[in-house]
Specification:
Layout (H helix, E strand, L loop, with lengths): L2 H58 L4 H42 L1
Length: about 110
């Protein structure tokens, strides 16, 4: 068997695996991009919630006692919502970091 024919099959297998790896990397890039856009959206929502929380705090200082109680509950709700968004953002950051590390190892 000529030497060139012996190398053709392993080269083809290597090339096939390379093509599979390219598809995986492309999928990771696509996923990272989608997750990054979600992180950006969450960051915008967090900013809005923080602004609302400041506004509610300011309003509560100008209202009667009954309204203050209601506003305290609203503040607590906003605080809880903000905490959920923050936890979601932190988890999403971990996922993105793990995918970037995987991508960097593969690339």
């Amino acid at each position: 068997m000529p030497r060139g024919n012996r190398l053709t099959r392993p080269f083809k297998e290597l090339n096939d695996e390379l093509n599979k790896l390219k598809k995986i990397v492309w999928n990771f890039k696509k996923t990272i991009s989608a997750l990054q856009s979600k992180v950006d959206i969450l960051n915008k929502e967090i900013k809005i919630i923080k602004e609302k929380q400041v506004f509610v705090s300011e309003v509560s200082s100008y209202t009667s006692c009954e309204n203050k109680k209601e506003n305290i509950f609203k503040c607590e709700d906003l605080h809880n919502t903000l905490a959920k968004f923050t936890m979601g953002r932190d988890k999403l950051d971990i996922i993105l970091r793990n995918q970037m590390e995987t991508y960097n190892k593969a690339g």
